[in-house]
Amino acid sequence: MKELDLLKKDWQKNKDSFEQISEKEIYKMIHKKSSSIVKWILIISILEVLLWTCLSLITNTDDYLDKINSKEFVSYIKIFSYLSYGVIVIFIYLFYKNYIRISTIASTKQLMKDILKTRKTVQYYVWYNLGMIVFGLIIGFIIALFYNPETIVLREKIESDPKIMAITVGILALVTIVLFGLFWLFYRLLYGILLRRLHANYKELKKIDL
After folding, report:
1. By the number of CB atoms within 10 A of the CB, which of 59, 148, 163, 204 ranks highest?
2. Is-above-0.90 flag for pTM?
3. pLDDT of residue 177
């Protein structure tokens, strides 16, 4: 925001003669920065989907699911995966719409509304992904313990001894919390910086609109 600070200082020095020009220059700069930020949000979200898709192909989850005794359960998992990807595609489409909307020259108030809308969309996207990660971990634990034939011995021990069951549940809960925290930090760093910059732009626009 150094360029904005310099413009604002110049604006204050020549407030009487250059107020309108300075406002326009500040608006144009904020508009350009906001458009660039939303473009990066769109690019990062697409790259993120490609990354998870590549990882799923590398790990070859289909072979693992084929070992499960319940074909009906596997069908539900696959349907849920397709729906989840569908929701992600919808979010990417919303990011694209936000980018097109912000890239179009609009009034200060409209740009402020678009910035707020974009921030909310990103926040919903992040919380959706975090929720899906937790849900996926829980489903993964259920598959590993109750549907994978290779864990029959472990399952029998858990079912026969309450202490082992309590320890297992505690370990799984701890793993879920740790992984949730790591992904939360990842999204915080990935999108948090961009959202903070958008919020800073919003505050600058608010000063102009007063």
Report:
1. 204
2. no
3. 92
